[in-house]
TrEMBL record:
Keyword NADP: yes
Record-annotated Glucose-6-phosphate dehydrogenase NAD-binding domain positions: 139-317
Alphabetic keyword roster: Carbohydrate metabolism, Glucose metabolism, NADP, Oxidoreductase
HAMAP family, alphabetized: G6PD
Species for this entry: Triticum aestivum (Wheat)
Gene Ontology BP, a term: pentose-phosphate shunt
GO MF terms held by the record: glucose-6-phosphate dehydrogenase activity; NADP binding
Protein's recorded name: Glucose-6-phosphate 1-dehydrogenase
Domain Glucose-6-phosphate dehydrogenase C-terminal: 320-604
Pathway field: Carbohydrate degradation; pentose phosphate pathway; D-ribulose 5-phosphate from D-glucose 6-phosphate (oxidative stage): step 1/3
A Pfam family of this chain: G6PD_C
Family listed: Belongs to the glucose-6-phosphate dehydrogenase family.
Keyword NADP: yes
Length: 608
């Protein structure tokens, strides 16, 4: 563990610490006061704490009678005891550990101590302000589709809402010859972000753009990363500084970028985190090699494998609903649950997905990460805490318990080519649709089919998880339901698309004389309940990275376990040359998916 050496000042009336922010002031307009920086840091911490520990933190706030946003040192005392890691820190009275917590330093990531002469903290945490480390975010592959359409807009939305520290700098990096101004114009031109109609947006955008710089990598990432490092260092000075590197590059370029980055672009004055995009490898072996190379240079805790589909509220609700409601928690097992359906379908055709879908196909692109992570979060045992590692410990057990999938329980589909051109998917047999029945061989889920279905170019956008419960044993009302026993099945539906909702199907009496039963839905429609704009999932996940919260990012052992589930299927598909069933755009997808569900005693109940 790296030791953080800090110069401690005696007591009252401390001189303001030398802030990285001061170095940003020439580009950022007037220097921002320590108070403001502290307030922003507090707000970020508080936002996160409220999101994750809601009422606990809220109660503490009320008890302390603090205003809307308390001072950062007070927030630390409100949130600092929430995770196991922080419990240890809070229990340890040494100034070093406490100070590193306030600085946002994660010991295992902070390879080197913060420089003694640059950083001044204070011995009384309840009364004294703290220094806010600067943050540099580099978007590698800045000219690509993902960076332009998703990453920069998400960064700006976070900046707009004050979720990035005041002393932040953004770097775009690619091999094209561009100037800062070109990058800024590109960001501005592609800003489809949700805050563009909000108050002061233009002002904020100008501020944001002034903090944005371009680094031309040339044709060699070794030189490129050295250049990036020196540009960042110039801005950071020698103060405490953290860095995030978003690797928005094709899989083939990942190591070409990541290895020089590890050698030359990491800060020695804080933590470094890298974000890696899906799909995570083409084969189990190639993925393993990439992982080994990454782990030879980075610590596991530094690596964030991002799948933006996991940044939806639907996914967080999986655990919130189960673990915070007594009416659901006891039902979460084979005893009450008959089957689980995970559906992710899109109207858009794979043609419109751009290069990133390419030859990878839907199994590597969507099933490997999104679907298997959803199942893992759904089916895991209660984690010890909300700490990322505790959750990942439980997810990996689920992935390792998934039974080898029988190829007879797999349906592949491919969108018919309507362009008249040679169909690149047909040529490569790349599936654009996948359905399967999976089983988890453990005590909780033994015998429960998990039916998954995902495809492009279908009749509607749908992302939902449906949980069908067993029929009531010896139901005394059975005669009132008619012949279709499925009609009285209780069902819980968590939905992201077509619109966010949580629905519970229950049986009730039809009004009037006589006793007739009906199946109705108790609806929680987010649109009606909450008058808020939903942040893009990239915003959510970027904030998690900033916060060091890893629970929605696949750890290397999860990645390997997911490959163990899918590699045999991919291998058998290749070996037997299993041809995908063609389906029309805007249709329901392959008919075989319906036979598959019936074989496992399930009826898709999803409208498509
Ligand atoms: N597009 C999307 O919405 C999504 C993309 N992804 C994933 O994100 C990654 C990027 O996708 P996308 O933006 O579509 O790809 P693009 O091809 O549009 O962009 C790739 C970017 O990487 C840069 N690049 C390529 N090779 C290198 C290299 N060796 N060194 C440095 N820079 C390099 C390119 O710039 P230059 O050639 O100038 O260096 C370009 O800026 C992929 O892994 C993809 O699977 C995941 C989900 C969604
Ligand atoms: O990663 C992917 O996500 C997109 C859907 O993104 P969203 O922001 O519209 O939710 C999907 O179209 C693509 O196939 C997939 O690779």
């Amino acid at each position: 563990m790296a030791t953080t050496v800090l110069a401690v000042r005696a007591s009252a009336a401390p001189a303001p610490p030398s802030l990285g922010a001061a170095r940003f002031s020439p580009v950022a307009g007037p220097a921002v006061s320590l108070r403001t920086q502290c307030w922003i840091a507090a707000k970020m911490k508080l936002h996160k704490a409220l999101r994750r520990h809601g009422s606990q933190v809220q109660r503490k706030l009320e008890i302390q009678g603090v205003g809307k946003i308390p001072d950062c040192f007070k927030v630390a005392s409100l949130t600092g005891r929430m995770t196991r890691r922080n419990v240890q820190l809070a229990d340890d009275n040494s100034i070093d550990d406490k100070s590193s917590m306030h600085l946002g330093l994660n010991h295992s990531e902070a390879d080197h101590p913060v420089l003694e002469e640059d950083l001044v903290l204070f011995d009384n945490f309840d009364d004294q302000p703290e220094s806010v480390p600067s943050l540099c975010i580099a978007v590698i592959g800045a000219t690509g589709e993902l960076a332009r359409n998703k990453v920069f807009p998400a960064l700006f939305a976070l900046y707009y809402s004050d979720f990035l520290p005041q002393n932040v700098a953004i770097f775009g990096y690619s091999r094209k010859t561009l100037a800062d101004e070109d990058l800024r114009s590109m960001i501005e031109a592609n800003l489809t972000c949700r805050v563009d109609h909000h108050e002061n947006c233009e002002e904020k955008l100008n501020e944001f753009l002034k903090r944005t710089y371009y680094v031309d990598a040339g044709h060699d990432n070794i030189d490129g990363m050295a250049k990036l490092n020196s540009k960042m260092a110039q801005i950071e000075g020698t103060c405490a500084a953290n860095r995030i590197f978003y690797l928005a590059v094709p899989q083939e370029a990942l190591l070409d970028v990541a290895l020089p980055l590890s050698d030359s672009a990491q800060t020695k004055h804080g933590w470094n985190r890298i974000i890696i995009e899906k799909p995570f490898g083409f084969t189990s072996l190639s993925s393993q090699r990439v992982t080994q190379s990454l782990l030879s240079r980075f610590e596991e805790r530094q690596i964030y494998r991002i799948d933006h589909l996991l940044g939806k509220d639907l996914i967080e609700n999986l655990t919130v609903l189960r673990f915070s409601n007594l009416v659901f928690e006891p039902l979460w097992s084979r005893k009450y649950i008959r089957n689980v359906q995970v559906v992710f379908s899109e109207e858009t055709s794979a043609e419109t997905q751009g290069r990133y879908f390419g030859n990878y196909g839907i199994i590597r692109d969507i099933v490997h990460s999104h679907i298997l992570q959803t199942i893992a979060l759904f089916a895991m045992e209660p984690p010890v805490s909300l700490d990322g590692e505790d959750i990942r410990d439980e997810k990996v057990k689920v992935l390792k318990s998934i039974r080898k999938v029988d190829i007879e329980d797999v349906v592949l589909g491919q969108l018919k080519d309507t362009s008249g051109k040679v169909d690149r998917y047909t040529k490569s047999m790349t599936p654009t649709y996948f359905a399967a029945a999976m089983y988890i061989d453990n005590a909780r889920w033994d015998g429960v089919p998990f039916l998954i279905k995902t495809g492009m170019g279908l009749m509607e956008n749908r992302a939902e998880i449906r949980i069908q419960f067993h029929h009531v044993p010896g139901n005394i009302y059975r005669e009132r339901f008619g012949h279709d026993i499925d009609l009285d099945t209780n069902e819980l539906i968590l939905r992201d698309l077509p619109e966010e909702a949580i629905l519970l199907k229950v049986n009730n009496k039809v009004p009037g004389l006589g006793l007739q039963l009906d199946a109705s839905e108790l609806n929680l429609l987010y649109r009606d309940r909450y008058d808020v704009e939903v942040p893009d999932s990239y915003e959510h996940l970027l904030l998690d990275v900033l916060d060091g919260d890893s629970h929605l990012f696949m750890r290397s052992d999860e990645l390997a376990a997911a490959w163990s589930v899918l590699a045999p299927i991919l291998h058998e598909i290749d070996q037997k040359r299993v041809a995908p069933e063609l389906y029309e755009a805007g249709d329901k997808g392959p008919i075989n998916a319906y036979y598959l569900a019936a074989k496992h005693g399930v009826r898709w109940d999803d409208g498509c």
